[in-house]
Design a protein that fits this description.
Blueprint lengths: L2 H17 L14 E2 H10 L6 H10 L5 E3 L5 E4 L19 E7 L3 H7 L9 E3 L3 H9 L4 E7 H6 L5 E2 L5 E3 L7 E3 L2
Bound molecules: ligand HQG.
GO biological process, one term: tRNA splicing, via endonucleolytic cleavage and ligation
Function: Removes the 2'-phosphate from RNA via an intermediate in which the phosphate is ADP-ribosylated by NAD followed by a presumed transesterification to release the RNA and generate ADP-ribose 1''-2''-cyclic phosphate (APPR>P). May function as an ADP-ribosylase.
Protein name: Probable RNA 2'-phosphotransferase
Length: 182
């Protein structure tokens, strides 16, 4: 499949597996899964004809590994980033002592005042590397990097989970645990 087709398909999957399943008449399970055949049929009814092999290619070649099949291969879900109410059931995990968040300058005053909030998603998204955080921030403009004291957060009882595609998830990061990287 061509790169631009992969991206187009990935955006459709993101829309329906994270945000708006009802728009193609599918329902996600409580933990975010949908039957692959049901998804393909629903997409087909809404103008996106896709074979199982093509879906597998979209999943495998996705730059951020956004989607995963279950062990049997019969179901698929987004690994993180949902705005609809799903409970992914990820186990608690201990993060590395330092994590990073990429954002843009216009959000920084609010972030330093009230901390990092999940906004429309379920959790705040943090990365283990500066490079990833920079790329996340750069989606919106000149990236600004925030350093998150994950060791102190863990110590203070904050919970972390690691998504299947290596994004660190936590409900809130208070300002005391944040520092702007200069
Ligand atoms: C900001 C993409 C004001 C936050 C990426 C961010 C990531 C605040 C925006 C994943 C705030 C939310 C997640 C506060 C946080 N006041 N602004 N208190 N707290 N913000 O997209 O982290 O392509 O929901 O800094 O690559 O940017 O979708 O989160 O700028 O992995 O797979 O509010 O989404 O991946 O934006 O990105 P988002 P994010 P996908």
């Amino acid at each position: 499949m061509k790169e631009h087709d992969l991206i187009r398909m990935s955006k459709r999957l993101s829309l329906h597996l994270r945000h708006a399943p009802e728009r193609i008449g599918i329902e996600l399970s409580d933990d975010g899964w949908v039957d692959v055949d049901e998804l393909l049929a629903a997409l087909g009814r809404h103008g996106l004809r896709l074979t199982r092999a093509e879906l597998a290619e979209v999943v495998e070649r996705n730059d951020k590994r956004r989607y995963a099949f279950d062990d049997s291969g019969a179901r698929i879900r987004a690994s993180q980033g949902h705005s609809v109410g799903v409970e992914l059931g990820l186990p608690l995990a201990t993060p590395p002592p330092t994590l990073f968040h990429g954002t843009v300058a216009r959000f920084v005053p609010a972030i330093l005042r009230e901390g990092l909030r999940p906004m429309r998603r379920h959790d705040v998204h943090l990365s283990a590397t500066e490079a990833t955080a920079r790329a996340v921030g750069a989606r919106r403009g000149g990236p600004v990097l925030l350093v998150v004291d994950a060791a102190a957060l863990t110590e203070a009882g904050h919970e972390f989970r690691l998504s299947a595609n290596d994004v660190w998830l936590t409900p809130h990061v208070p300002p005391a645990f944040l520092r702007q990287l200069r």
